TrEMBL record:
It comes from Poecile atricapillus. The lineage of its organism: Eukaryota, Metazoa, Chordata, Craniata, Vertebrata. InterPro entries: Dsh/Dvl-rel. The keyword Coiled coil applies. Residues 38-114 form a coiled coil. The gene is Dixdc1. It comes from the Eukaryota. This is DIXC1 protein.
Amino acid sequence: LQKELLKYKQEARNLQGIKIPSPQDALQQRLIQQDASVLQLKQELLRASMDKEELHNQNVDLQRKVEERNRLLAEYKKELCQKDRHLQQHQTKLDEMLRQLSEASYQQVDLERELEHKEALLAHCMKREAEE
C-alpha cells in the first residue's frame, strides 16, 4: 500500500507540476533566506559605515573651517585694536593742536589789539609832532 501511495503521489506531482517540499528542501530554502537577510544587513551596515565616515569627514572639514574663521577673527580683532590705538593717538594729537591753535588765535587777537593801540599812539605822536 505504501509503495502504491508513493507511486500515486509521484504521478500526482508529475501531473500537477507541483513539488512537495521535503524537510531538507525547506531547510535549504530557510538557509537561503537567512543568507539573503545577512547579505542585506551587511550592505546596510556598509552603507551606514560609509555614511558615518562621510559625516566624520564633513565634521572634520567644518571644524577646520571654524578654526580658520576663529583665527581670522582674532587677527581682525588685533588689527581693530591697533587701529583704535592709532585713532586714539591721532585724536589726542588733534585735540592738542586745536588747543594750541586756540591759544595762538587768542595771542593773535591780543597782538592785533596791541598793534592797533601802538599805531594809534604813533599816529597821535606824529600828529603832535606835525603840530609842533
